[in-house]
DNA sequence: CGGATTTGACCTGCGC
DNA sequence: GCGCAGGTCAAATCCG
């Protein structure tokens, strides 16, 4: 199946259900739409990647995890603690790069395409 | 059998 | 007012 479909998305520890996929002409890239499978969770995930460049993957988290934390936290026991308020920190759009980490401008919360 | 995933069609919003 | 783009939902299918 792994022909030229959706690439491997980075597992964030949450469970997502794909509910749609479309090609965005505005940016000439594919876009997949995911929704949190947890009840009471209005968190959504949006993944977009180039139609030709498999290395260009972009994951954008939209909404907040109102159900608390992930089913399998990567480091549950430290700052995570297991508080719903922790997830509430994501009240804004959290942009996560699938492979590359922005080495500069950490305050860059806006979405700036390449 | 259940759950997950995929594709298509439909609807809404914005621009011109 | 119409057209285009983007977004969402539903149904069908496949795998475990």
Break the fold down into its secondary structure elements and pairings.
Blueprint: E1 16-24, E2 29-36, E3 44-50, E4 57-62, H1 84-88, E5 94-97
Antiparallel strand pairs: 1-2, 2-3, 3-4, 4-5
The protein binds a DNA duplex (16 and 16 nucleotides) through strand 1.
Structure description:
This protein is mainly beta and 114 residues long. The protein has a domain at 23-62. The protein is built from one helix and five strands. It has one helix spanning 84-88, and strands at 16-24, 29-36, 44-50, 57-62, 94-97. Strands 1-2-3-4-5 form a five-stranded antiparallel beta sheet, with no helix packed on it. A hairpin with a 6-residue loop joins strand 3 (44-50) and strand 4. It is elongated. The protein starts with 15 loop residues before the first strand and ends in a 17-residue tail after the last strand. It binds a DNA duplex (16 and 16 nucleotides) through residues 5, 17-22, 24-26, 31, 33. Residues 5-70 form the WRKY domain.
Uncertain residue segments: 76-93, 101-114
Count the helices. How many?
A: 1
Strand content: 25-35%
The biggest beta sheet is recorded as: 5 strands, antiparallel
The chain-level structural class is mainly beta
Query: What is the approximate shape?
Result: elongated
Can you write the helix and strand succession as a string? EEEEHE
Radius of gyration based on Cα positions: 15 Å
């Amino acid at each position: 199946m792994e022909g030229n479909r959706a690439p491997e998305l980075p597992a964030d520890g949450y469970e997502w259900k794909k509910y749609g996929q479309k090609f965005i002409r505005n940016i000439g890239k594919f876009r997949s739409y995911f929704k949190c499978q947890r009840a009471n969770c209005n968190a959504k995930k949006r993944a977009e990647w180039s139609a030709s460049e498999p290395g260009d993957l972009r994951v954008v988290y939209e909404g907040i995890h109102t159900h608390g934390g992930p089913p399998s936290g990567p480091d549950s026991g430290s700052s995570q603690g297991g508080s719903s308020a922790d997830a509430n920190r994501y009240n804004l759009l959290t942009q996560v790069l699938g492979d590359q980490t922005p080495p500069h401008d950490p305050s860059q919360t806006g979405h700036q395409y390449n």
